[in-house]
Amino acid sequence: MADRAASAARRATILAAVRRAGEANVAALAAEFAVTPQTIRRDLNHLADRALIARVHGGAELGTGIANARYDQRRGFAASAKARIGAAAAALVPEGASLFINIGTTTEAVARHLVHHRKLMVVSNNLNVVDLLSGREGIAVIAVGGQVRAGDRAVIGALADQFIDNFRVELALIGASGLSEAGDLLDFDADEVLVARRIIRQARKVILVADSSKIGRAAPIRIAGADAIDHLVTDRITSPALRAVLSANGVTVTETG
User: Fold this and answer.
1) DSSP annotation string for 77-112
2) Is the model more confident about 49 or about 131?
C-alpha cells in the first residue's frame, strides 16, 4: 500500500514537472527520485497510457497536440451534465457578488451561464473564463497573474497563489479532478492544488461543481476535505458514503439529474 502511494506521488510530481518544462529525461528523473531508470520508465509508460504525456526516446514530453486533445476531450466529456451543473451553480450567484472561478471545464460551464449577470467582480486563474466574461456589461473581470499552462490556459504556481492572496471574495466556484467517498477533493498537479487551496481560504463560501464521474476518481494530491466546501452542485451522487459525509459536514447538495 505504501509502495502504491509512493508511486502515485512520484508520478504526480513527474507529470507536474513535464507540464512545467514540456519534457523530462529518464536519467535525470531517476537521479532526482533516487530510483532506477526502469522505475522511471514504468512511471512514464503509466502516464503515457493515460494520454497525460507522450513518450519519446530517453524520456517524455507534453506535446501540444496531446495537451490540446486531452483538454478538448475533457470539455466534451459529460457535456450535457456539465451544462446543467453550470446553470444550477450560476443560479446560486447573486447579482453584485464577488467571486473566484478556478480552472476546469465544469467551472467554464458555470461561466457560460453568468454572462447575463450584473455587477459581478470575477477573479479567475482560468483564461478561458476570462475570455468568456471579459467585455460583458456589468461584469468586472480580473485575470490572475502567473505561469500559464499551455494545455488548458490555467494560471498556476507561486505567483498565482500570491496574486489571489490580495483578494477576499464572497464566493468561490471551484472544480476538482476527483472527489473521494470520504469527501476529499483531489487533483494531480501540486501547483494547481496550491492555487485551489488559496482560493478556498480567501472565499467566504465555497461551491464545488463536479459531475458524477469525478466521484470515486483517484488522484494523488488532496486539495481539501468536505469541511472546506459549503455547497456541491452535481448531476447525481452515486455514493451513499459520500452523501453521508457531506451531510455530516453540513454541505448543501444540488443534484441536477
Assistant:
1) TTHHHHHHHHHHHHTTS-TT-EEEE-SSHHHHHHHH
2) 131
